Amino acid sequence: MLNQKIKDNWKWILIPIILIAELLIDDYVMPHVYKFVFHLFAFNPVQNFYTYLNIYKIVSILVICLLNYWIIKQKIFFKPSETKVGWLVFLVVCFTIVLACFTHKHFWIALDVGTIAALPEELMFRGIILAFVLKLMTRKSTDQWRVITSLVISAFIFGGFHYINLTSQSFGFTSFQVVNAAALGMLLGAVYIKSGTIIVPMVLHFIYDFLVTLIKGMSATNYTNVQTDQWWGLSMYVLIYSIVAVSIINHKPSDNKLLSKINKF
């Protein structure tokens, strides 16, 4: 039993290992590969920024999947446990929202940004990190406090990872983004726990980034100061997101589909 406890405790170190490995490969190793390949094909990433961004994100998805296979080996659940009318209605509503925005001037950019933001981030932070933390936390017991703690830990990791944006943003704005991402991570994690399929948080994340980009467009850098009233507004969002997230997983805990799935692997 002691050996098993030590073994389980050591598994926690796999989380920073996969995050650091992904960061190093994406931001330090691959840029050298891109530079060589782009030079070979006379491709200018500055003039073709969105093409470059899509290449970067596709490679990032491949890197995440390979690192998961080599390091954590966490199964990512796509197939729904059962067909629920509520989730189907949710997907139809999301699809309707996208169609309703078809004539907007930022539609195609928003569609692209929503997709390339949602896929890699949900694979990493909900599909791998949240599920792995849940597995470690609920191995002996599925008490609700363990589930909520797992949700908070993964949300904090998701939010904190956004500090990599400091290369193109001010500390104040990035911190604002970090807090907002952590709160959103609570909500996305909760729907993954409840639904048991990564598709639901992926779609929700897509809609969030899609609508934000639709409204604001996309800027490469942001060094604007965050005003006090914006922080107060964010505090309200954090409170609302957190209450909704906890309510989702506390409502009929036996229906938290992800828990039954991860305990089988």
TrEMBL record:
GO biological process, one term: CAAX-box protein maturation
Keywords attached to this entry: Membrane, Transmembrane, Transmembrane helix
Cell division listed as a keyword: no
UniProt domain CAAX prenyl protease 2/Lysostaphin resistance protein A-like: residue ranges: 107-211
GO molecular function term, any single one: endopeptidase activity
Record-linked InterPro entries: Rce1/LyrA-like_dom
Regions crossing the membrane: 12-29, 49-72, 84-102, 108-133, 145-164, 170-191, 198-219, 231-249
UniProt keyword Membrane present: yes
Family from the record: Belongs to the UPF0177 family.
Protein name: CAAX prenyl protease 2/Lysostaphin resistance protein A-like domain-containing protein
Species of origin: Apilactobacillus kunkeei
